[in-house]
Amino acid sequence: MRANSICGALVGSLTARSMSGFAAAWCMTSAKNGVSAKTLHRLRGFGSYQSTWTMLHRFRTAMVRPDRDRLAGDVEVDETLVGGTKAGKRGRGASGKVLVAVAVELLSPKGFGRCRLRAISDAEAPTLRSFLLDHVEPGSVVITDGWVPYPSAVGNEYVHKPLPIAGSGVKAHVPVPGAPAWPASLSGGCSAPIKGL
């Protein structure tokens, strides 16, 4: 009976703001694909969109393990540009875009595991190598497309499995399905990549 009275007193002393925080945490952790700030704001009516976004950002920051392990096993690595559609140059060098390196664990027999993302200044070998050393366990199999800097970036620390796509007539998502899928989910507010951090 003592536990019930303590819990009742605790819940009774919580403010509406802290209760909304618990509700947001529950929504975030119980939804299969996470929850976006826009959805949470619309469904639960939490203050403004900005305060809802800030709350979710704080939860996501708290969910990151500071001592998280590096990815291991078969790991797909790719780089992509993240940003909205704008007139002008497309692809590398487009204005208003951020180059992001992506690494995704492949699970056997199918599926994806954890993911790591990092904004990078360029897609040259030293930058990609730094990303690999920080986020992928040495000895892992690194699966990449045919981008020229990858063999130098992989070096002797990893087993490199290149899958060149250019000129093959095959779409990029077929031989390397994991890494290109994660940046696409960023624009939809999906928190699946964040859960694995």
Overall number of strands: 5
Cross-sheet strand order for the largest sheet: 3-2-1-4-5
Work out the helicity level. 40-55%
Structural class: alpha/beta
CATH class of the largest domain reads Alpha Beta
Tags for this entry?
single chain; 197 residues; alpha/beta; Nucleotidyltransferase, domain 5; 2 domains; 5-stranded mixed β-sheet; 5 strands; 40% helix; globular; disordered N terminus; disordered C terminus
Detail the topology: elements first, then pairings:
Blueprint (H helix, E strand, L loop, with lengths): L1 H12 L2 H15 L6 H8 L4 H15 L10 E9 L15 E9 L5 E8 L5 H11 L5 E4 L5 H5 L4 E4 L15 H9 L5 H4 L2
Parallel strand pairs: 1-4, 4-5
Antiparallel strand pairs: 1-2, 2-3
